Amino acid sequence: MALAEARAGEEEMGPFSRVHVTINGKAYDAEVETRTLLVHFIRETVGLTGTHIGCDTTNCGACTVLLEGKPVKSCTILAVQVDGRSIQTVEGLESGGKLHPIQEAFIEEHGLQCGFCTPGMMMTSVALLEKNPHPTEAQIRRAISGNLCRCTGYVNIVKAVEHAAKTMSAPSGGGKA
Amino acid sequence: MTVHGGIGQSVKRKEDARFVRGQGNYVDDLKLPGMLYLDIVRSPYAHALIRYINIEKAMKVPGVLAVIRGKDLEAANLAWMPTLMSDRQMVLPVEKVMYQAQEVAAVVATSRYAAADGVAAVEVEYEPLPVVVDPMKALAPDAPILRPDKNEKSNKIWHWEVGDRKGTEKALEASDVVVKEKLYIPRIHVSSIETCGCVAQFDSTSGKLTIWMTTQAPHAIRTVFALVSGLPEHKIRVISPDIGGGFGGKVPVYPGYVLAVVAALKTGKPVKWIEDRSENIQADSFARDYHIEAEIGATKDGKLKALRVKTIADHGYTDAAANPSKFPAGLFHIVTGSYPFEQAFVEVDGVYTNKPPGGIAYRCSFRVTEAAFTIERVVDILAKKLGMDPADLRMKNFIPPEAFPYKSALGWTYDSGNYGGALRKAMDMIDYEGLRREQGEKRKRGELMGIGISSFTEIVGAGPSHTFDILGLKMFDSCEIRIHPTGKAIARFGTKSQGQGHETTYGQILAEELGMSVEDITVEEGDTDTAPYGLGTYASRSTPVAGAAAAVAARKIRAKAKLLAAHLLEVSPDDLEWKEHKFQVKGVPGKAKTMQEIAFAAYTNHPQGMEAGLEATAYYDPPNLTFPFGSYICVVDIDKETGEVKIRRFVAVDDCGTIINPMIVEGQIHGGLTMGLAPALLEEIQYDEQGNIQGGSFMDYLLPTAVETPHWETAKTTTPSPHHPIGAKGVGESATVGAPAAIVNAVVDALSHLGVTHIDIPITPWKVWKILHEKGVD
């Protein structure tokens, strides 16, 4: 999908670069200011606003997305750096009208309140469970320590990740993203 | 018969469906056609004259359309705006800046990035002035006067006191034992993960201004905007969409909001302003900053007699505290806590300094954490002095359950409580006696372990209209319900959730009161064009005030529904009773009408002479505040090598009256505890002598992560509020209020044998290590 409107009204700015990127399995192609941060590309150029911005210093993790399956903080990566690569955001978790087990688990265990850190927190958790399907509480806490939550006190987030781990490893299978 | 999703059920939250899909609607998600972006030039100095602002280069930056300066606003009489506490604050300075990171000019551009380029190109020349950061120095006779427009002689803003000064003095003199301690509760910042921001849009055809903004109090904000701008109030619409955490930080009106509105009016296009994190931490309102001196007197066998508290409150350059108007120090006079002091006296002096405005809450009702921390700290210090166990001293002195309603020495009437019950439960859960034995053994081996208790009493749910107002607006709140013909409903409220789950919990109150399923009730808040007027969500007031309005409005609906049911059943209304969530003929259980059947009749078959429809509105004026309470016990182990404090266990027993949704209540407590841990061990905003902020980003200002946060253990007792329609008290902030003292008491307990009586928060490893080093412990 071309996003020609990205340059509208900004002719005199620059420099510009063309970025081809696959987000949630869909190809995007846009010309953006070369300095455009990946998070702004995702939110404003592509229009997927589930990925949030909570700080400018790579501390809070609200902007976490998966880059080739690995969690990265999209506020500290330029869009041009992901040219030709594949990204998953929170919008890509649900599949065929069915929530991902991590989404189900956050609801079941009350792992979210204001919802602002939630997308980043879930993306980090998905990456953890991919690498380590049966994490201990300490491993979960360490894995999400780059994602700040001001509402929940983390207890129920940890429970949600444990819950998802169980669902995903059950014989019936919770599936994965 | 129970209704699905009624009171007391842990139903899953309705709001989660959109949040887990990334479909929340936060302010920064809004994108309007032709929208412009606003960014702000900020002062590097804490106090300086502005010699000039040169915008020439900025105006040449591609994409920049306008630069707004103080003098531009002055022409429209908008350079200053009122604060909530009868002070005034600058939107943009004309003459001088008063704190580092203060707004100096605003740049409007076609993109976020172009606006930032424009900010970098604005040239400002400053002439630095002497800086006052220490409120004690600010009160010295030779201190520079910071606000000659308010007070030409001193930097003192106000003096406030309550209680019997002489009586307390006498009671302290007559006490066998008196302990006195200085406690500093430092500046901290709420740092909700979503920063503040807005989108302002002015429709020149209709003359209507719409502002989507991160506000906890949309209705009050609309009125303030009308009064300040002169725009008619019906031509202003404030929409508070999903809010990514508030905690008090989204109550004030910040200059950025006003600048975005000015820019929208000036350009005729929608304008977005979103703070970045460093702007949020450096310039938005702060909490706490109380320099407290507390004295407590008791008999030698531990009967509490008198409490005297003197406080210097640092308010920064303007008194922009978000307090009810009549309470410059908030509800700090809840400082007698859970104890029946015969005499108490508290005084506070508010002081100006070269810092951003302080005096907002940090997930607590107005200054209640400061109060709870003070009393729970000095009671512990007294216990040590008396050689009593801190649990015994508390148990001996608690206001007994039969004494409620209880009038405190400082004038509050506590609604209900069972303080001993909560403490005993916490002690049993954690095996208090066993821990004391363990501590004794460990101390012999030279290991540092401490146990800390906090038995706090909160005061929330502001408030009764005879005493509580903000800018003259009485602190009621509201609910409007409409039942549709098929028995489904929409209810709107004057509050605004920021993560508390109102869509679910308000729905549960209505489900219970109306005999409907929670799924059949839509709850809406935050749009001033549609929701009834209310004062908003802060100070744990949503459930005590708007939750009560929900019950009252529902009961009005029930009153009409009863007449409709009588009509349908062809009986007299007197023959009907509300039983098992429907109206049934007394003694004839089979003869009944559900709310769904009644609602249909309200539109299709209502009696002649009765108005059609089934709806009601309630504006609830609470007769009193509510007084949630709890007892927390914290166990810490201290690493002698590093000074690190490790929380081994933390048990929290809370009593918030009737519980609407146990799952949500527990979640609120988990979060509150973490925001109690934060100032106790990690967070502080410091300034150097030039007024440079020392922790202006998440690199330096340490929010607890999942690693520092322990696995909180929670439990409850239930003592309903006698004056609330459903007995609820509010819970969002209890844990933030109660936790810090438990943690500090535990750390001091671990070190008490070394002669330590107090350590100011945050208790960092460095502070502990220094103490251990000084005491020769290694």
Give a topology summary.
The complex is a heterodimer of chains A (177) and B (778).
Chain A: E1 16-23, E2 26-33, H1 38-46, E3 64-67, E4 70-73, E5 85-88, H2 101-108, H3 118-131, H4 137-143, H5 155-169
Parallel strand pairs in A: 1-5
Antiparallel strand pairs in A: 1-2, 3-4, 3-5
Helix pairs in contact in A: 2-5, 3-5
Chain B: H1 16-19, E1 36-42, E2 48-54, H2 56-60, E3 64-69, H3 70-75, E4 80-82, E5 88-90, E6 96-97, E7 103-109, H4 112-121, E8 123-128, H5 135-138, E9 156-163, H6 165-174, E10 177-188, E11 197-203, E12 208-213, H7 218-229, E13 236-239, H8 255-267, E14 271-274, H9 277-283, E15 287-298, E16 304-314, E17 343-351, H10 368-386, H11 390-397, E18 406-407, E19 413-414, H12 419-430, H13 432-444, E20 448-457, E21 469-470, E22 473-474, E23 477-483, E24 489-493, H14 502-514, E25 521-525, H15 542-569, E26 576-579, E27 582-585, E28 588-593, H16 595-604, E29 615-620, E30 629-638, E31 645-655, H17 662-682, E32 713-716, H18 734-751, H19 765-774
Helix pairs in contact in B: 10-18, 12-13, 14-15, 15-16, 17-18
Short description:
With 177 residues, chain A is α+β, with helices and mostly antiparallel strands. Chain A has helices spanning 38-46, 101-108, 118-131, 137-143, 155-169, and strands spanning 16-23, 26-33, 64-67, 70-73, 85-88.
Task: Give your account of this protein's structure.
The complex is a heterodimer of chains A (177) and B (778). Chain A is of the alpha+beta class and 177 residues long. Chain A is built from five helices and five strands; from the N terminus they run E-E-H-E-E-E-H-H-H-H. In chain A, strands 2-1-5-3-4 form a five-stranded mixed β-sheet, with helices on both faces. Chain A starts with 15 loop residues before the first strand and ends in an 8-residue tail after the last helix. Mean pLDDT of chain A is 92; it is low at 1-11. Helix content of chain B is 29%, strand content 25%. In chain B, the strands form nine sheets. Chain B has a seven-stranded mixed β-sheet with strand order 3-7-1-14-11-12-13, sandwiched between helices. Chain B has a five-stranded mixed β-sheet with strand order 9-17-16-15-10. The radius of gyration of chain B is 27 Å and the shape is globular. The chains are: A alpha+beta (177), B alpha+beta (778). The interface between A and B is large, with 63 and 63 residues.
